[in-house]
Amino acid sequence: MNDAAHTLVRMTDTDLTPADPDDDVRGRKVVDRNGDEVGDVEGLIIDQEERRVRFLEVGSGGFLGLGEKKQLVPVDAIIKVDDDVVQISQERTHVAGGPVYDPEMVVEKRYYEDLYGYYDYPPFWGPGYTYPGPFRR
Fold first, then answer.
1. Annotated region Disordered: where (predicted)?
2. Given its phi and psi angles, is residue 39 left (phi above 0), alpha (psi -120 to 50 degrees) or beta?
3. pTM value?
């Protein structure tokens, strides 16, 4: 995959669905490895070609939508999913210190590379990458 950024889209901006319907975790709480709340899964970034979820769009903070911060978390960070909660391997302070996501900006491949680097995971377009799905349950 040569230009990963152009194959990734916000799922809500398309009529795409994940290849595995169980990977649609929108609306669930996100907690860190200690069980501390990080935010809510407000959206999913999906690969158009394979229809695999690549990032969770996590919203946190704010009140009534004002002052809310959004960040993308690679699905590789998911360690557990149940009916109401997605647990990730990082601590919430690590997520809070990550790059802020603005769904209105044009996202370049470098942005995704930086995200994978920040979370210490190889990018999905790299050699030998194995998709972590279906999400560990």
1. 1-23
2. left
3. 0.88
